[in-house]
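User: Could you go from structure to sequence for me? I need the amino acid at each position, not a summary. Structure tokens:
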């Protein structure tokens, strides 16, 4: 049992693995990446052509890496540091092996395209200690001043199982959960499209909370409140209650919130290793070529300050150093709000409907705070109860989610004292790292009065509020009701055959362009869409035995809702 309130259907290892391609665009990116024919090729006349890649997060690095392999010359622009929201930091004065994941920290097995690159660069993963996960020694659920200790959901009071059953019933009755999950697992595209088309029409205007309220299983306000505070998989979901239920269904259908794993040594290693990696199979470039070697000094170009359309349907990029370069093609992977605020943009870059979609993008706030400790003292046993003295904690107090992270009983360890979203994140925004820590220690002290956490802390806290990060302005996209049409415009932007010629050549990518924002898989898959788009734009094509996402687009295109 891996979730506080698990998905409706429990699966066995004998069943085929699901992928996170999701119901909107059921394309097997993992098969595309694994095919020996590769992702495609471009005409030899285009070899060495420069392509701007704006943003050095995971999406930008994946796109740049694959373009380089095709014989193009990606020019990566990055305002801050390679990795984006794959940001791993250390603690001043502590062992450099002691790290904190400020952004992405847990990845589901259904992220199969992401896993391709994790394996490619030789990284290892390990189980992540979500509430009640098999690898989590114990979990404490603390609501309204009452704490419950559990090693499995069976240890919790009956009301929690009632809530679990209500969620299962809600999914089955309102969202054809079992049928969709089975269709995704079997990659039954006609069935996926049949089910999802009806649900998109039915539920696009519905909130997560409204979906619960419409279910007889959730007629109890108490059950809805507990579900919001405890939730499923990663914890409480009431911060998502105002969002579109379609966003939540994508998560549960694809098991994105189950069986999470973390990257040993930190997630930022993935884009950093890809930056330096010298692919064995590469076109045009000499053996030993890497993204690093294609950039002066081995570093990306600085922040983009201006984007213009120029003669010949080119894209002209101005960066913070004042350098101006013009490209036949560009990929924009930073959060789309950057195009509205940080970067001076020519209105002719995109059709007006796409500008509207970017403007309507809804980002969720998120904050974390970590402290280094001398050892995983939480594994000590209480002499009176025999229980762990401290546990992975879900609470309605300010901390909301507390995660205990260790690398062995005798080594220094890390506590994520608090991980919060939306309004809960905004409550922390005015406070410094130390002020945040003091409030968190007070809250946790009320849950664990016998435990002196402070005496174990061996370094200063590190914290982030993504809504206050100047090159992000939020943690990840989460569509509101009625936003499906906007998301469809952004996701399908890589298909530019129907656009006027003066609107082609710049491609959107990144997790907020995907249907699964907040998951690194969306960053990877939209990067691959954009790579296909650039290849096609420059006269290239995929191998006939390995059609790309654009080649099969007409068969699997996202449902299109009427505009009138």
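Assistant: Here is the amino acid at each position, in order:
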């Amino acid at each position: 049992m891996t979730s506080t309130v698990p998905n409706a259907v429990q699966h066995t290892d004998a069943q085929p693995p699901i992928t996170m391609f999701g119901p909107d665009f059921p394309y097997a990116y993992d098969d595309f990446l694994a095919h020996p024919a590769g992702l495609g090729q471009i005409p030899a006349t285009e070899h060495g052509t420069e392509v701007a890649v704006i943003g050095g997060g995971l999406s930008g690095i994946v796109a740049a890496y694959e373009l380089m392999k095709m014989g193009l010359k990606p020019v990566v622009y990055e305002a801050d540091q390679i990795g984006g929201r794959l940001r791993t930091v250390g603690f001043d004065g502590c062992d450099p092996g002691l790290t904190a994941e400020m952004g992405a920290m847990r990845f589901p097995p259904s992220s199969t395209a992401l896993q391709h690159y994790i394996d490619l660069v030789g990284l290892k993963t390990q189980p992540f200690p979500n509430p009640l996960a098999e690898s989590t020694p114990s979990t404490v659920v603390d609501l309204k001043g009452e704490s419950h200790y559990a090693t499995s959901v069976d240890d919790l009071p009956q009301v929690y199982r009632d809530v679990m059953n209500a969620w299962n019933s809600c999914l089955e009755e309102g969202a054809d959960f079992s049928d969709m999950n089975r269709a995704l697992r079997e990659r039954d595209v006609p069935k996926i499209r049949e089910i999802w088309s009806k649900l998109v029409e039915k539920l696009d205007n519905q909130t997560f909370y409204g979906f619960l309220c419409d279910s007889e299983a959730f007629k109890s306000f108490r059950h809805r409140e507990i579900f919001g505070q405890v939730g499923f998989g990663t914890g409480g979901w009431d911060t998502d209650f105002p969002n579109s239920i379609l966003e939540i269904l994508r998560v549960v259908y694809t098991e994105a919130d189950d069986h999470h794993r973390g990257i040993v040594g930190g997630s930022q290693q993935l884009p950093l290793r890809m930056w330096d990696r010298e692919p064995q199979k590469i076109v045009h470039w000499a053996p030993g070529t890497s993204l690093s070697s294609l950039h002066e000094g081995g570093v990306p170009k600085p922040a983009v300050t201006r984007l213009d359309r120029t003669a010949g349907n080119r894209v002209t990029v101005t960066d913070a150093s004042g350098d101006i370069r013009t490209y036949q093609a560009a990929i924009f992977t930073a959060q789309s709000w950057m195009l509205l605020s940080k970067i001076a943009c020519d209105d002719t870059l995109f059709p007006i409907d796409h500008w509207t979609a970017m403007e309507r993008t809804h980002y969720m706030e998120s904050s974390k705070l970590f402290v280094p400790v001398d050892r995983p003292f939480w594994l000590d046993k209480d002499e009176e109860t025999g229980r762990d003295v401290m546990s992975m904690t879900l609470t309605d107090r300010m901390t909301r989610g507390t995660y205990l992270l260790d690398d062995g009983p005798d080594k220094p360890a890390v506590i994520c004292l608090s991980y919060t979203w939306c309004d809960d994140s905004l409550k922390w925004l005015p406070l410094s790292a130390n002020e945040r820590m003091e409030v968190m220690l007070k809250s946790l002290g009320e849950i664990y009065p016998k435990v002196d956490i402070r005496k174990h802390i061996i370094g200063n806290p590190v914290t982030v509020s993504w809504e206050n990060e100047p090159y992000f302005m939020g943690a990840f996209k989460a569509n509101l009701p009625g936003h499906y049409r906007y998301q469809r415009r952004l996701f399908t932007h890589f298909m530019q055959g129907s656009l006027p010629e003066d609107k082609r050549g710049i491609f959107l990518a990144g997790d907020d362009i995907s249907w699964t924002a907040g998951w690194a898989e969306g960053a990877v898959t939209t990067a691959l869409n954009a790579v296909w788009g650039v290849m096609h734009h420059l006269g290239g094509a995929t191998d006939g035995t390995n059609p790309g996402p654009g080649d099969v687009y007409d068969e699997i295109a996202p449902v299109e809702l009427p505009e009138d």
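One structural detail worth keeping in mind: Confidence is low (pLDDT under 50) at residues 1-14.
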